[in-house]
Specification:
It is globular and about 50 Å long. It is α/β, with parallel strands linked by helices and 379 residues long. Helix 9 links the parallel strand 7 and strand 8. The strands form two sheets. Strands 1, 2, 3, 4, 5 and 6 form a six-stranded parallel β-sheet that branches. It has a three-stranded parallel β-sheet with strand order 7-8-9. It has twelve helices and nine strands. The chain binds zinc ion. The site of zinc ion (ZN) has 5 residues, from loops.
Length: 379
């Protein structure tokens, strides 16, 4: 139109929500269905859980890390996800390990679920494998899904599975969920507690980190115990990342990060995705969803003050945890963004939190695999 402003309309002018790329969700398991729970649709607006395509569109959820998480093996006789009292106690035990054959079978089911969603989405959801694809998705409004494994149980210690999974699209791995495996040990659901709850990485764990560096797979530190954290920091060549963890100084659960860990993440150029779990945000650590959104804002504030806003992002844990009632689900994201704006985060800071910080970290982390050796083999 002659005389009109050639600049693209701003988010505020169009009323469109700020596009948020998010550090963690567990929607794949609820879409797949498990342990007697019926599968649910990702494409129809539901009232269960937190995330589906319509609610993502409403709230500005532009994409994120889609977790493949292996539930406990029912055959092992301990089917409960975790011993779940009203509150996490100071003595809670670590959930038991799961075997690799069961983990691989479940991981294939959930990975297949993600690729099926992509195929059935009519171009609305795309599994992204590099930053150029991710940027294109953010620009065109295509929901961007990063294939993430939350716990490396499905991967054999010789790492052959890793090579195959990378080529299928795996771009992010948390070495552990909250249990031990062949590579490392996670933290229990204990409160209050330090994250120094067990041994560091095994030799296979160190090899896994090196292989991830070589392939360009992000290593996620959320759920890892403190000794494991420092072992990864020593081995890795990539920025340190915790996709869905908060500040231990405010909420002393071992799932949150000590100031010394935050400082290491900041020095490495990494990022922390703020987890919306009320039990990781409230001072008392209780799983009470009657918790104001401001409890999350306090963690955004603390982490930004400690590390700088360029090291903070979103890490919702949608469909994996209890979040504040007022936030409710992915459609409620604009209410959190408004609360952050009210707390003093300006447009530039909000864009960093929403996706720019993740883009920077992934640009430094997702590199092409190293060239083959002289023999032509990568061994
Ligand atoms: Zn988690």
């Amino acid at each position: 139109m002659p005389g009109s402003d050639p600049a693209p309309p701003s988010t505020a002018a169009t009323g469109a929500p700020l596009p948020i790329f998010d550090g963690h969700n567990d929607v794949l398991l609820s879409v797949y269905g498990y342990e007697g729970r019926a599968p649910r649709s990702f494409f129809q607006r539901g009232d269960q859980g937190h995330l589906d395509l319509p609610r993502a569109r409403e709230g500005g959820f532009a994409g994120g890390f889609f977790a493949v998480w292996v539930p406990p093996d029912p055959a092992a006789g301990r089917p409960e996800l975790r011993p779940a009292p009203e509150e996490d106690s100071a003595e809670a035990a670590l959930p038991p390990p799961v075997g690799q054959p069961f983990a691989l079978r479940m991981a294939m089911a959930l990975t297949g679920t993600l690729f099926r969603l992509e195929a059935e989405s009519g171009g609305e959801l795309r599994v992204v494998r590099d930053v150029a694809e991710l940027r294109t998705c953010l620009e065109t409004g295509t929901l961007a899904a990063v294939l993430h494994y939350e716990g490396a149980e499905a991967i054999d210690p010789q790492l052959n599975t890793l090579e195959v999974l990378y080529r299928a699209g795996l771009r992010s791995i948390g070495l552990v969920w909250s249990r031990p495996n062949a590579f490392a040990e996670g933290v229990p659901f204990r409160f209050p507690s330090s994250p120094d709850t067990g041994p560091g990485l095994t030799a296979a764990g160190r090899e896994l980190v090196r292989a991830c560096n070589r392939l360009g797979i992000m290593v996620d530190l959320s759920h890892l115990n403190e000794r494991g954290f420092w072992d990864v920091a020593e081995v890795t060549t990539a920025p340190l990342v915790a996709t869905h963890s908060n500040a231990h100084a405010l909420t002393p659960t071992p799932r949150n990060l000590l100031d010394t860990q935050l400082d290491a993440i900041q020095r490495s150029g990494g990022v922390v995705g703020v987890n919306f779990a009320v039990s990781f945000a409230r001072e008392d650590g209780r799983r009470d969803t009657d918790t104001p959104i401001d409890a999350l804002v306090r963690h955004f504030d603390y982490l930004s003050d400690r590390m700088g806003v360029e090291h903070v992002a979103f890490g919702s844990d949608f469909d994996g945890t209890g979040i504040p009632d007022d936030l409710h689900d992915a459609a409620g994201l604009p209410r959190l963004v408004e609360a952050l704006r009210h707390a003093g985060f300006d447009d530039a800071a909000l864009r960093m939190l929403a996706h720019e910080n993740w883009l920077r970290v992934l640009e430094r982390t997702w590199r092409a695999p190293a060239a083959t050796t002289e023999s032509g083999l990568t061994l």
